[in-house]
Amino acid sequence: RERLDGTPITLPRVRHGYRTHVAGRDHAQVESNPVGSPAPEAPKGAKFGTQPGSGSGSGRTSRELMTGGLSNPVTRIGSGAWPLLLVAAGLAGGSMAVPRAGADELLVGAAISVRQPLVEIAARYGVERPGARVRLTFGATSSLAAQVRAGAPIDVLVSADERIVDELERRGFVAREGRREFALNRLVVLVAADLEISVDRPENLDRPEVKRIAIPEVAVPVGRYAREWLASRGLLKKLEGRIVPTAHARATLAAVDHGQVDVAIVYATDARLSRAARVAFEIPEAEQPRIAYVAARVTNSQHRELANDFLAYLGNQATEAVLRRAGFTVPEDPP
Question: Is 295 helix (H, G, I), strand (E, B) or coil?
Fold first, then answer.
């Protein structure tokens, strides 16, 4: 999890490590955050997320189940320990480089569930705004909000929970000016590939064969959404003893994809990245929570004009097309 005391942070990573993307005619370098795209493959014979006292001496710890598996120190900015993903337009050559902070450099802290489309959006923005650089840092919205409260050098917050932005706005940490709701998501239920029973309706989550259910902590948006839905179905109290708390949305996907839990409640867009787990059922439309992604400028940003321009860019047609390809809907779409 993110720390505010300057010590290194570890996050799950993809097995292929760092990669460079090229957008358009100009080179747009992307120094990839260790948090991955699809869930990483487990090493052969690995015991992922073994709980203490489970009887397995070679398994991974419950801490690794929380964070999604393999960990790696993240790239740092300044003297802090903020995980970074750099998108820079017009850089020469193919080597990875982190430029010095400048007047046209923007740091965007974003919910990890919007990672794939936001990487492309930021790259496009860099190409269309020569000289402008966008750094992206991903994590649970709750952790990013804590960093904003602590004075992290974040210019724009992209939240998977409008309530968190409302709270930050009331306390003066983010500005109302330029605030933009730009994407919507849904919840689905995933089951492990080797689960032998059918979980095709909510009531089946209470079957005795379903022993472990991955859901992020309640402070994490998808964790709150999932618990509120389970409570509305009268299932939360029944299932509380089976819930395995995870750090964020992608750690939840990794847990069920590796078969270390039987069931997970995830965003529909994350379910598209699954390699092994399968969709058991979509939560009915009438029961879906409203999952809105909201971007806002941090009040103490030193790049107010650039931040407002990036917020406006999130609402253009090209950006909306990128979001739809990733499985999101946009506020203008019909239900």
Answer: strand
Report d(CA 26, CA 90) in Å as an integer.
Answer: 5
pLDDT in tens, 284-317: 999 999 999 999 999 999 999 999 999 999 999 9
Q: Are residues 260 and 119 in contact, defined by beta-carbon separation less than 8 angstroms?
A: no
Task: Dump pLDDT digits (tens) for 128-182.
Answer: 998 889 999 999 999 999 999 999 999 999 999 999 999 999 999 999 999 999 9
From the list 70, 31, 32, the residue with the least C-alpha distance to 48 is 70
| Secondary structure of residue 226 in the 3-state scheme | helix
231-239 CB contacts, 8 Å cutoff, 24+ apart:
232/287, 233/202, 233/287, 235/202, 235/203, 235/205, 235/206, 238/206, 239/205, 239/206, 239/213
User: For position 291, what pLDDT does the model report?
Assistant: 97
Q: Is 130 exposed, middle or buried (0-12, 13-18, 19+ CB in 10 A)?
A: exposed
pLDDT digits (tens, 9 = 90+) for 183-241: 999 999 999 999 999 999 999 999 999 999 999 999 999 999 999 999 999 999 999 99
List CB contacts of 25: < 8 A, sequence separation 6 or more.
Answer: none
Kind of pairing between the strands at 180-185 and 291-297: antiparallel
Question: Which of helix, strand or coil describes residue 214?
Answer: strand
- In 162-314, where do the E strands start and end? 180-185, 187-191, 213-216, 243-246, 263-267, 278-282, 291-297
The structure tokens 């590939």 sit at 193
Considering the chain, what is the average pLDDT of its residues? 77
Task: Give me 294's structure tokens.
Answer: 């909201």
The pTM (predicted TM-score) of the whole model is: 0.74
Please count the helices (runs of H) and the strands (runs of E) in the chain. Answer: 10, 14
- The first and second tokens of residue 126, run together, are 């860099």
CB distance 8 to 81 below 8 Å:
yes
Q: How far is CA 97 from CA 32, 46, 48, 171, 182, in A?
A: 12, 34, 33, 36, 30
Contact 88, 99 (CB under 8 A): yes
